[in-house]
Structure formats: C-alpha cells, structure tokens
Amino acid sequence: MNYEVAHFDPSGRYNERSSIMNVEAIAIYGATGHTGRLMTHELATRGHKLVLAGRNRQSLIELASKVDAEVEVRVADLDDSQALQAVTENTSVVINCAGPFSRSGEAVARASLKSGSHYLDHAAEPLYVKRVFDELQGPAREAGTVVIPGMSFYGATSGMLASLVADGLEQVDNVTIAYYVTGWLMTAASKYTAVKLANSDRLAYANGKLEVVERNAEPEWFEFPAPIGWRQVLANYPAGEVITVPRSIPTSSVDVFMTVKTFQEDGVFTSENLDATERNRSEFTIVAHVRSSGNTRVGHLFGKDIYQVGALIATEAAVRLADGYTGVAGGVFGAAEVFNPEEFIADMQRLNAFETTF
Length: 358
Ligand SMILES: NC(=O)c1ccc[n+]([C@@H]2O[C@H](COP(=O)([O-])OP(=O)(O)OC[C@H]3O[C@@H](n4cnc5c(N)ncnc54)[C@H](OP(=O)(O)O)[C@@H]3O)[C@@H](O)[C@H]2O)c1
Fold this sequence. Notes:
The chain is globular, with a radius of gyration of 20 Å. The chain has eleven helices and 17 strands. Helix 1 crosses helix 9, helix 4 (101-115) packs parallel to helix 5 (126-143) and helix 6 crosses helix 11 (341-350). Strand 3, helix 2 (57-64) and strand 4 (71-75) form a beta-alpha-beta unit. The protein has helices spanning 34-45, 57-64, 81-88, 101-115, 126-143, 153-165, 188-198, 241-248, 306-322, 335-338, 341-350, and strands at 5-8, 25-29, 50-54, 71-75, 91-96, 118-121, 146-148, 174-182, 202-206, 209-213, 220-224, 229-234, 254-259, 283-292, 295-304, 331-332, 355-357.
C-alpha cells in the first residue's frame, strides 16, 4: 500500500508524518489538477481543513506547502484500494476532481461510502453518471451518505436552472437545455474526456424511455437570447442531465444541445499546457426550456469562466454537506434533489458566479 501522510500547518510548514485530521476535513482527490487547485483555494479561503490527495506525491506536497489552511497530503493510486480507502478516512466529504470519471469515479466513491463520507465529482459523462445511479444507490442508502455525480458547471448548473423554471408544474412534456460556450480552453483531462465522449455511445429519450444510441444526432439550430441569436448546436450532446433532470422534474424527455462552434474555436483542443490565469476567458449562456401543456417557460443563466464556476458550485455543495445540511437521507442524487435550486442559485449569484433571467 502506497499510503503516506504529510501534514502542513496554515503557514505551509511541514509538521509530522501521522494523520491528525478528524471528520471535519474535506478531501480533494485529483487536487493537483486545474479544477482541484481552484477547489483547494476556495475551500481554504472558507477556512476548511483539507486532505489533498492524488497519485503524484511531489505535486501534492508542493501544493500543500502553498495553501493557507490546515492541510494533509495523502497519496494513492486508483488501483490501490487500501491506499484509496485511507484517503477518505476521517473526512466529511470527498470531492473527486480526477477525470475522466469513468476511470476514477467508482473507486473513489466506493471508498468514500465505506468511510461514511459524502461524495461529489465533476463528471459530465452520462454513461458513468447512469452507472453511479444504477450501482451505488443501494450502498449509498445503506451508508447514509450523499453521492452527487456531476456537481459542477456541466450537470448541476443547468439542472438547478431547469428545476427552478419548472417549479410547480405537475407534468412536463420536455426539458431542453442548450449551452452556448465560447473561449473554452480545455485542460488535459477535459480534452481527454471530450475526445472519449465524442466516440462513446449516447443516451437519448425515445417514447419516454432513456436508451443507449450509437451516434451523434445531426446538428440542429437553436435560438439563444440576443445578442447571440440563432446558432447551430450539437443535438444529443453527452450530458449527465438526461439522467438527473427527470429525478427532480416530472418529465421523461430531456434534450441537451451545445453550440457547434465551441469545438471549432482556436485553442480549444491545444490548450492543455496553459497556465491557470490563461484559462479564465470562457463565457457561457445556458438556456432551459420547459414545455408543459402547450406552454414554454424559459430561463437563462450566463457568466464567465466555466472552470471557476464548476469549482464554486462543488465548493458550495461540499461546504453544505460538511456542515450537516443534506436535506435528504443517504443515496445517489442530482444536485436539484439535494439543494433548494432557488437558494443555491441565489447564493451563486451573490458569489458573482453567474446571472440569471427568466
Ligand atoms: N462537469 C464540469 O463542468 C467540469 C468542470 C471542470 C472539470 N471537469 C472534469 O473534471 C476533470 C478534471 O479536470 P481538470 O480541469 O482539473 O483537469 P486537469 O487539470 O488535467 O487535472 C486532472 C487531475 O486528475 C488527475 N488524474 C487524471 N488521471 C488520473 C488517474 N488515472 N489517477 C489519479 N489521478 C488522475 C491528475 O493527476 P496528475 O497531476 O497526477 O496527472 C490531475 O490532478 C476532467 O475530466 C474534466 O472534464 C468537469
């Protein structure tokens, strides 16, 4: 077992080699990646004790020595189940930032459940999200801990927006979520995940049933609010929302679109070595259409820097879970089932993560 502990005080001084963390600590697996570092900063700023975890000892120690918080480093490969178990021990919440999650998610989530820790990740991989609901629902209920796959920009933001738009409706014919994203400079793991998703099977609704389909649908046109206007969109864009949205909105039809141009822009697939400050220029508009009995309700959410928004959303969720706010008993959930979408979105607006119009 490759498990070791290095403990740092808030001034970054190395102290001792045995764990002094207790269950107040929040663990970040994949802490040395772009998203993991953003989350480390956000959680440290809020005064949380942190376990920084991953496979690369040297990067973790370098990161820990720069963090202004009580921090412990725990090193574990995904295939070392004992070491991974030790990563999650004595933590309230484990946030997995080591994508793709089809590779890391189940192992980290199962270790979290065994330790009685809540589990969140940043997955935008629909087949993985479905697997978590299918296979971890029983274990999570039994452990009494909350599991939320896709607690990030893609997944949670649109899911909560759609739930807010659909509020009070007893039956919904269709939910359509459309993303306009420009200036996305992918990290190494985002690029790897995007390429993998482009070549994977998709999930789509047919006659009220979610089915595995083999290919992308043909591009369609979608009208975004002015000044964006009509844009060509990838239909059946791979997104966990097809699984999570019907859990909080009474519908059996969900479509997710993404602007075609997002993946044709300069640098989108060649930016994995950029530094963090160069990555924050992305802009986004998310539209949720909720159709019910011949009427369509619409909500928009727009802002900048999709990575920072993803990190803020996961941070706010982790802090709520660590503080004992679950709103639900143990199980696997979409974000809008665990948190009140109106309150959560209002809090995110207070943090300047995005704006909304309805
Ligand atoms: N849903 C969303 O809106 C959203 C938002 C942000 C990110 N994401 C997803 O989150 C993931 C991480 O993104 P990022 O921007 O942080 O990427 P990144 O900067 O490339 O970092 C990836 C991190 O994962 C670790 N990792 C990768 N493969 C691993 C493995 N097999 N075992 C252990 N650790 C492994 C890396 O560790 P090393 O340093 O040791 O390589 C690194 O710490 C991606 O899949 C991305 O698509 C989703």
